[in-house]
Design goal:
The complex is a heterodimer of chains A (about 120) and B (about 100). Chain A is α/β, with parallel strands linked by helices and about 120 residues long. Chain A contains four helices and five strands. Helix content of chain A is about 25%, strand content about 15%. In chain A, strands 4-3-2-1-5 form a five-stranded parallel β-sheet. By secondary structure, chain B is α/β, with parallel strands linked by helices. Classes of the chains: A alpha/beta (about 120), B alpha/beta (about 100).
Chain lengths: ~120, ~100
């Protein structure tokens, strides 16, 4: 039971990218933790899955495109990235993401994986 | 390994509570505070699986302030002190806001 001795962090993203700062805030926290060698697991549920869709361009609506920074996850050793399959299906989205290494999980597996962490921050 | 789910939004305006329901596990606790108190009367309550043995709590003052009647014993009345105690008696906390 690794999680009893080691504190693990999950960041649960639930908002679409451009209308508020939730996604950007979540990214900042993830990178801060990762730069102290405590890489969190990232979870995307509900409208949060829109943050992962390929070919987005925030500059068209004058929003600084923080999504491009997702490409740095690998460099920061953030490797555990999970997406709720049901949230994709509800939104008629494909698995065409703008970063690699994303694991699409059923609702049940997604929940299990999320609850395997002892700290969960939701944005 | 139970989780405390603190629900702060009305399901009539956001889908936070419906996302919360999809992640409920056995013996978890749901605490409604702020506008989350409105969810006591939402149809989504019926979709909570009875087999999961979910404990439901409402911050009494938040419900009273909104003139909501707390249907005991379906919902347990709690105060801020109890809420803090719940955060200690569970393994983890998710705030749905």
């Amino acid at each position: 039971m690794n999680h009893l001795t080691q504190n693990t962090l999950a960041i649960l993203n639930s908002k679409a990218p451009y209308s508020n700062t939730a996604g950007k805030d979540a990214l900042d926290i993830a990178l801060i933790f990762a730069s102290f060698e405590q890489a969190p697991s990232l979870f995307f549920q509900g409208d949060g899955v829109y943050q992962l869709i390929a070919n987005q361009d925030g500059s068209l609506i004058s929003v600084k495109d923080y999504l491009k920074t997702f490409a740095a996850f690998e460099f920061y050793d953030i490797e555990d990235i999970y997406v709720c399959e049901n949230s994709l299906i509800e939104r008629k989205l494909t698995t065409d993401f703008h970063i690699e290494q994303i694991q699409v999980l059923s609702t049940q597996k997604f929940t299990q994986q999320l609850m395997s962490n002892n700290t969960i921050l939701r944005f | 390994m139970a989780t405390l789910h603190i629900v702060r939004q009305s399901a009539f305006i956001s889908n936070d509570f419906s996302q919360c329901i999809t992640t409920l596990g056995k013996d978890d606790t749901v605490a409604f505070i702020d506008d989350g108190c409105y969810n006591m009367q939402h149809n989504l309550m019926k979709s909570i699986d009875a087999k999961l043995n979910i404990q439901l709590h409402v911050l009494a003052k938040h419900a009273q302030a909104r003139a909501l009647i707390i249907n005991e014993p379906e919902f347990g009345k709690i105060n801020m002190k109890n809420l803090v105690e719940l955060t200690f008696s569970h393994d983890r906390v998710i705030t749905w806001q």
